[in-house]
Structures are given as structure tokens and as C-alpha cells.
Design a protein that fits this description.
Layout: H1 2-29, H2 34-42, H3 51-64, H4 70-81, H5 96-131, H6 136-149, H7 153-164, H8 188-226, H9 229-236, H10 241-261, H11 264-270, H12 273-278, H13 284-293, H14 297-325
Length: 332
């Protein structure tokens, strides 16, 4: 175990460097230049092609370090990252860490609630469908979950706003931001209820798709395990159906589900661009989208690097959990 863990940790470093290098090259190939965009924003989109404008662009490039060759820019960035410094934003000259720390708690709150609801609801439904195959209830659940999985979340978000956000029907839930005006002066329990009230519609939009997918995955894997010989042997010993399912079958059916856990960490960090934009939530998805539009290279690289690192850590945790759940899997 120790040797395997050390080997995987050492593999993370070159993999992460490769991901960051490819990302760096891609954003450099994208059309647009941060210096030119910043000058256009300062002049309200009207930038005269004059010697003064060109001088300002060159000065801005020098300020951001964009006048150096691309390999030098990348190496300087790697050097800063090893000291946990992602630099300053091109857009507002704030520390990238400060911008991430401002947005990350909001995104984590939304995604933790959504992921918790997905697993809380999907796995019991998947187990029930697997233990009652081809029944009317199983067919109804299958139809319902396939229908939910096919719905695009931006369309559902607009529909929920129309139905429950004061659109054409009921005005039940807020559709803007994460807190009411003046909520910071309320008691903590009232602030908590207000936050949950604001997050009700966004969490719904982020939950139903994963709920449908995980439920069907649980059903399919558990059905496959139930047909194995050792499960028939357990039944032949006179064990109750509940003991057979939860003690013998469900543990092995968890292996594909654990694979999804590898992507939970980056999912909690990344946020949802569409949902955060529709509900005006200042989260990580919105931050990344704004960074791409403004060619804010330090923010783009920071978000990509942290997402890649969390993905690699999640894959490592998944492999370790495989060995814990199934002793037949050898880490070497």
C-alpha cells in the first residue's frame, strides 16, 4: 500500500505539469489579447489605431509579462505555482487566491447539497428497482428517470423560474443571488434558512440529472451482481434477502459507483456556468466564464490547475477504495 501510494503521488506531478502545459498553449492560441481587451474596455470599445494606442498595448504587455517568450512565461508561472502563488488577475489586479476564496464557499455549498441529495435518493431507488425488476414500479421509475435525464438543465431552470419564481404563476422562491438584502444582520438560523431558500431552485437544477443517472447505474450494477453464483449460494444457505443484498451483493455493486467519486472533488470546485449565470450566483463557474471572456490567463490557469489536481486526487482515492471493498484487487 505504501509503495503504491508513493508511486501514484509521484505520477501526479508530471501529469499535472502536462495538463497545465496543454492548457497554457490552448489559451495562448485563443484569439484576443489581454492587453488589447483591457485597452478596449478602458476606451469603451473604441480604440484608435494610433502610435499612442500601440505604445499603451506594449506597456500593458510588459506589465503583465506578456512580452516574454511563451516558454519563459510558462516557466515563470510554474515557479510561482510551486510557491502557491497564482499571481494577480489581469482584469482587476486582485490576487487570484482572493478571488477563488471569495467564490469557492458558495460553489461548495451548492454542490455538497446537490451531491448529498443525489446519493441519498438515487441509491435507494436503484436498489429497489434491482430487487424488483420488471415490475410496474420498476418500469415507472425507469421511465421517470430517463425522462429527467433527458431534460436540459437550462430549460428546467427557466421553467422553474416561470413556475415558482414570480414568472407567470407562483412567487415562492427567489431567483437572484444567494441571500436577501440585509440578511447579514439576521440571526444565524434565519440566515441559514434564507440561504437554503435562495438555493432551492439552483440545487434542483443540479440534482435531477445526476439522480437519474446514478439510480440507473446502481440498478444495472446490482442486477448484474445478484445473478452471480456466490449470491445464489448465499440464498441457498437460507439467509434473508436483506442480508444477501446488503452484505454480499451491494458491496461489489459499489465499485462502478465509486468511480464517480473521483469526479466529485473537481465537481464541487468547478461549479456550473449555466446555472450560476441564470440565477446570478457568484460562484466558481461564473468566475471561470468571466475569466475566459476577458482573457484573464492567471485565473484560467489557477482554476484548471486546481481542478486537475482534485481530479487526480479523486482517482487515487477511488483506486484505494477499490482495494478496500474488493480484496481481490491487488494494488501492485
Amino acid at each position: 500500500m505504501r509503495a503504491y501510494l508513493l508511486k501514484r503521488l509521484l505520477q501526479i506531478v508530471p501529469t499535472l505539469l502536462g495538463i497545465t502545459f496543454i492548457t497554457f498553449c490552448i489559451i495562448q492560441l485563443a484569439p484576443g489579447n489581454p492587453a488589447v481587451l483591457k485597452l478596449q474596455m478602458a476606451s469603451q470599445g473604441e480604440m484608435a489605431d494610433t502610435a499612442y494606442a500601440k505604445q499603451v498595448i506594449e506597456q500593458t504587455k510588459k506589465l503583465y509579462g506578456l512580452d516574454k517568450p511563451l516558454p519563459v512565461q510558462y516557466l515563470l508561472w510554474v515557479k510561482r505555482v510551486f510557491t502557491f502563488d497564482f499571481g494577480t488577475s489581469f482584469k482587476d489586479h486582485r490576487k487570484v487566491w482572493d478571488k477563488i476564496a471569495e467564490r469557492l464557499p458558495i460553489t461548495i455549498q451548492i454542490n455538497v447539497i446537490s451531491i448529498f441529495l443525489v446519493y441519498l435518493i438515487a441509491i435507494p431507488f436503484g436498489i429497489y428497482s434491482a430487487t424488483h425488476p420488471e415490475t410496474l414500479t420498476d418500469k415507472a421509475l425507469t421511465l421517470l428517470f430517463f425522462f429527467l435525464y433527458s431534460l436540459p438543465n437550462f430549460w428546467v431552470a427557466v421553467l422553474l423560474i416561470m413556475l415558482f419564481g414570480g414568472g407567470d404563476f407562483w412567487d415562492v422562491f427567489p431567483v437572484y443571488g444567494i441571500a436577501s438584502v440585509g440578511a447579514e444582520t439576521w440571526p444565524w438560523w434565519q440566515q441559514l434558512l434564507d440561504r437554503l431558500w435562495h438555493l432551492a431552485l439552483p440545487v434542483t437544477c443540479l440534482t435531477y440529472g445526476g439522480l437519474a443517472y446514478l439510480s440507473r447505474l446502481t440498478r444495472a450494477e446490482l442486477l448484474e451482481v445478484i445473478r452471480e453464483d456466490y449470491v445464489r449460494t448465499a440464498r441457498a444457505k437460507g439467509l434473508s434477502e436483506r442480508v444477501v443484498i446488503f452484505k454480499h451483493a451491494f458491496r461489489n455493486a459499489l465499485l462502478p459507483i465509486i468511480t464517480l467519486l473521483a469526479f466529485l472533488l473537481p465537481a464541487m470546485f468547478g461549479g456550473s456556468v449555466i446555472i450560476e449565470s441564470i440565477f446570478s450566483i457568484p460562484g466558481m463557474g461564473q468566475l471561470g466564464f468571466e475569466a475566459v471572456l476577458s482573457r484573464d490567463y492567471p485565473v484560467i490557469m489557477a482554476i484548471t490547475t486546481l481542478s486537475a489536481l482534485l481530479t487526480l486526487v479523486g482517482l487515487l482515492l477511488s483506486d484505494l477504495l477499490y482495494a478496500v471493498l474488493d480484496p481481490r484487487i491487488q494494488l501492485d
